[in-house]
Amino acid sequence: MSTQHKATMSFSDGTPSVEFPIMTGTMGPDVIDIRKLYGQTGKFTYDTGFLSTASCASTITYIDGDKGQLLYRGHPIEQLATHCDFLEVCYLLYYGELPTQSQYEEFRSTVMHHTMVHEAMQFSVRGFRRDAHPMAVLTGLTGGMAAFYPDSLEINSPEQQDISFIRLIAKMPTMVAMAYKYSIGQPYVYPKNDLSYAANFMNMMFATPCEKYEPNPVLVRAMDRIFTLHADHEQNASTSTVRLCGSSGTSPFSAIAAGVACLWGPAHGGANQACLEMLEDIQAKGGLAKVGEYMEQVKDKNSGVRLMGFGHRVYKNFDPRAKLMQETCKEVLQELGLEDDPIFKLAMALEKIALEDDYFVQRKLYPNVDFYSGIVQRALGIPVEMFTCIFALARTIGWVAQWKEMITDPEYKIGRPRQLYLGSTERPVTPMAQRKG
Ligand code: CMC
């Protein structure tokens, strides 16, 4: 990280100018190191929504939003999604390099031998209402892991960090499937460790004690790709939440639970559910014939309607994950003989109109990964309410890799943003009897 250049900040209120080092990373915009700003001037910076603020230094994931580029540890997402399975990607994100064959076998075996959750966890699941949103259940279960593994609180022990990582990767699919089975009143299906990571998850979702589930390789590959495409995405809202929560030194399971809670929102991980519901709603109201009318609503600022699955804070050209997901979508629909699926056709029509419409072109709004991932998941038989849980399952590796990077960073400090206070200045308390009105 070079710091050759400097930025000078001058003030019109008489405060003397100050110089700040400019830090240059391996790629991406330079960063002005303003950590001494308050000490030297008594002023804070103001950047709600982190529009111009790098909250940390990281070596894990790189995004160039203008180029539509996404790299995990330097490797393009297109190549990872084509040549690697999700467990290779997990290894890469956490350890920094792709595994050799023997490292992969050992890692796979370790992960797959930690897939069972403590038997008592099923009582936690049973404590929830059956109609609870599975993301509410998953938030509780993930945080609850801290109760089963208190040693995880030794956050500075490399051994405990690695054990927590393995436990999270291994048990998240089991917990997601448990939340689903409970919601539909079916018994939990125990993990089958001889299956692949994705096939095991699908088996826990779809098998029953009375009916065997035969994983279809095309669908398993699609599931695996969904995991890879969602594995990490640099300092997004849920990852920043994990870092901020974890910065207090709490258990990694608690920090990841905070990430799950953040991901649930419709502007983040909940968008795939919102997108599919939007498509189903348009379909119910008349399908293709209603697309024009819907687009008018989307463009009307007063309607509060957004085209879900479109737009991204960082990607202003295209979302490379959306291209890969569209490819997978076609493969899955073909495999299942659903090429004429009306929802898919509707999505294609909306995409075409949006890409040619001035409103979207001017604002650089392109389909994001959620635009197609909902259609794929629906074709795989996953109910809409479970979509965000699948995203959480996949993003767990990103969260845990970023958590580990943070707590092993020599510059690591508890996160503590400051504020621009706009409330009352100091005023006395009037005793209740003397308050008017
Ligand atoms: N439909 C219609 N208009 C939109 C949309 C959309 N989906 N997204 C942005 N705009 C407009 C917005 O109204 C604004 O217009 P104007 O400049 O005239 O006021 C302009 O585009 C910029 O929008 P913004 O809200 O300032 O952009 P942002 O960077 O804060 O928001 C976003 C990014 C993803 C929250 C937003 O695009 C959105 O709400 N999209 C729909 C939800 C969605 O698909 N989310 C999934 C994100 S990808 C998954 C992930 O990585 O988490």
What secondary-structure arrangement, pairings included, does this model have?
Layout: E1 6-9, E2 18-23, E3 31-32, H1 37-41, E4 61-64, E5 69-72, E6 75-76, H2 77-83, H3 86-95, H4 101-112, H5 121-126, H6 134-148, H7 158-184, H8 197-206, H9 217-229, H10 237-246, H11 252-263, H12 271-284, H13 291-299, H14 320-335, H15 342-356, H16 358-362, H17 369-380, H18 387-407
Antiparallel strand pairs: 1-2, 2-3, 4-5, 5-6
The protein binds carboxymethyl coenzyme *A (CMC).
Give the CA-based shape.
Answer: globular
Helix content: 40-55%
As a whole number of angstroms, the C-alpha radius of gyration is 24 Å
The overall pLDDT average reads: 94
Helix-strand pattern, N to C? EEEHEEEHHHHHHHHHHHHHHHHH
List the ions, cofactors and other small molecules found in this model: carboxymethyl coenzyme *A
- For this entry, what is the oligomeric state of its chains? single chain
Indicate the proportion of strand residues: 5-15%
Cα(first) to Cα(last) distance is 61 Å
Strand order of the largest sheet: 1-2-3
> How many separate helices?
18
- Biggest β-sheet description: 3 strands, antiparallel
Counted beta strands: 6
Q: Any low-confidence stretches, pLDDT <50, length ≥5? A: none
Kindly name the structural category. Answer: mainly alpha
Could you describe the 3D structure shown?
The protein is mainly alpha-helical and 437 residues long. It contains 18 helices and six strands. The strands form two sheets. The chain has a three-stranded antiparallel β-sheet. It has a three-stranded antiparallel β-sheet with strand order 4-5-6. Helix 6 packs antiparallel against helix 7, helix 7 (158-184) packs antiparallel against helix 18 and helix 9 runs antiparallel to helix 14 (320-335). It is globular, with a radius of gyration of 24 Å. The protein binds carboxymethyl coenzyme *A. Carboxymethyl coenzyme *A is lined by residues 233, 236, 267-269, 271, 298, 306-313, 363, 365, 368-370.
